[in-house]
Write a structure and sequence with these properties.
The chain is mainly alpha-helical. The chain has a domain of 95 residues. The chain has five helices and two strands, in the order ββααααα. The chain has a two-stranded antiparallel sheet with strand order 1-2. A hairpin with a 2-residue loop joins strand 1 and strand 2. Helix 3 packs across helix 4.
């Protein structure tokens, strides 16, 4: 039986507890990201908090992002969340049939993806993508991103092996 802490390779462990998460990813985490993350930037100018393996660069970039996650900023974002969620619920409600009939099944994973993309569009770009709206031409984008990750993820461990041999 596998518990919340186990070694799955000679050089790798899994720690799946709240305390471990805080210790690893918290502000005083004493863990360096693996070379896997270096596959993400296309050039030195696109390094971000996700792709950097440098503690100093990550700290500098994270300080800038902290303003977006302050209590006041999150409170200001509520209006965007409510507007998108209210419309999303309205659209889901329109799926209901008349007079006690059964509804056709709907893929809630797709509907959640469309909602999240619309919220992120509002928060990041000042306009949602209208993915949740019937007839949207952008509904395929989440699947395109999944396909991209399926291609990139298997390739990136090779990047680690090549880097270690140099």
């Amino acid at each position: 039986m596998v518990g919340p802490e186990f070694r799955y390779r000679p050089d790798s462990v899994v720690l799946n507890t709240p305390a471990a998460f805080k210790k690893i990813f918290g502000p005083k985490g004493n863990v360096k990201k693996g070379l896997y993350y270096e596959v993400w930037p296309r050039n030195v100018h696109t390094i971000n908090t996700w792709s950097t393996t440098s503690v100093e660069v990550h700290s500098r970039k994270r300080r800038v992002l902290n303003y977006a996650f302050s209590e006041a900023a999150l409170r200001d974002a509520e209006v965007f969340l409510h507007a998108n969620i209210d419309r999303w619920l309205e659209l889901i409600g329109q799926q209901a049939p008349k007079a006690g009939e059964w509804t056709a099944s709907i893929n809630m994973c797709d509907w959640m993806n469309w909602l999240v993309f619309d919220i992120l569009g509002d928060l990041c770009f000042g306009k949602n993508f209208d993915m949740k709206e019937p007839g949207s031409d952008l509904r395929h984008i989440p699947e395109v991103m999944v396909q991209f990750m399926e291609i990139l993820h298997p390739v990136s461990p090779l990047h680690q092996i090549i880097d270690r041999s140099c």
